[in-house]
Structures are given as structure tokens and as C-alpha cells.
Amino acid sequence: QVQLQESGPGLVKPSGTLSLTCAVSGGSISSSNWWSWVRQPPGKGLEWIGEIYHSGSTNYNPSLKSRVTISLDKSKNQFSLKLSSVTAADTAVYYCAREVDSYYPDWGQGTLVTVSS
Amino acid sequence: EIVLTQSPATLSLSPGERATLSCRASQSVSSYLAWYQQKPGQAPRLLIYDASNRATGIPARFSGSGSGTDFTLTISNLQPEDFAVYYCQQRSLWLTFGGGTKVEIK
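Predict the joint structure of the above. Result:
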């Protein structure tokens, strides 16, 4: 079974860039799957951020598109998220997930990122 | 953007009862709808995909139905471990989730 693990700073300053990495084990990031990021503000619902295919093709949530970059590192079997110009509204638990036929059977455990000075 | 509206926001039930959760889409998603369960401090868990197919390892007391714009997740004979928040999800042009239904112990 594929396992995913998020890592990155838990605290980011306002106007800075949030950077997270998702390490994939038990499977190859070069397989025919989309690899996604989803976030959840404290006490709120889930928001899809975007996704990347093994070819490097990406899709982003239009509401975040101007600030989001998702990339792959096949040599390390991981993918990454960068979100620029962050504000307190970007404080959330960030999850990485593997998409299979438009659904998410595999998730990381999530990492809380707080935007604060 | 397709908006998913879940109701009710909160469902108060006792163990052994049946839970009926609704998810309505702002336009047709055919049968391309999933349901997830989320417990505090945990990632969501896929329960149902393609509206009515149980994911691997999901007990038979969870069932999904519907197509087009109206969908239902039914949990028969609620178990103590079923009290959680449930989300629906669709994937059309891009992916969206519903706002969630919390199933709490009455």
C-alpha cells in the first residue's frame, strides 16, 4: 500500500512562501496517478489545492492558481507544494494524497502550517 | 465550479440507529461522487466511490446511492466508531468537497 508523509516548516511569516514536501513510499511517483494537495483550516472543511501527474502536468484550484506551484522530484520519489504570499487565511492542516480514478484512497497524516509573525 | 451542499450539518443519533446523510450537487456529476469519513486529528478515509461502491475494507453497513445531483450515504446500525464527520467529493472540471456532516452521539 502506498504511504505518504508530509514535511516542512510549521510556521510561516505573512507574505512569505509556504513550502511542503510529500515523500511517497510503497509505490512509484512515476506511476499513472495524479498526486494532490488538500488543505483544511482549523475546524473547517476540505479544500483541494491542486495536483500533478507523473508527466509533470498540473491542475490548480482557480482560487489559488496565481499563488500555487506543485512540482515533482522523481529521483527522491516525492512531490512538493509552494504557496506564495501567504496570509493568516492560509493557516491549515495540509495533506498530500494519491488520486485514483478521481478519488483519494491514500492520504498522508497531514501537517499543520500556521501563518503568523 | 460545482458546489456540493451537505445536509444536515449535524446529525444526533444513538448507537444502533440508522444515519442518512445527503449531498446535493449544483449541477449533474453523473455518478462521479465519493464519500469520506474523518475523525479528529486524522486524515479523511475513503468510504464510497462512484456513488455506490464501497472502498477496500469498508464495512457493509456503509452504503451509497444516487446519481445526477442528489446523493445519499446511509450508515445502518451505527457503531461507536462511526461518530465522525463525513464529506462528499466530486471531480468534474476540478475537484470540490462538500461542507461536511457531523454525526454525533445523542
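The interface with chain A takes residues 1, 32, 34, 36, 42-46, 49, 55-56, 87, 89, 91, 94-100 of chain B (CB under 8 Å).
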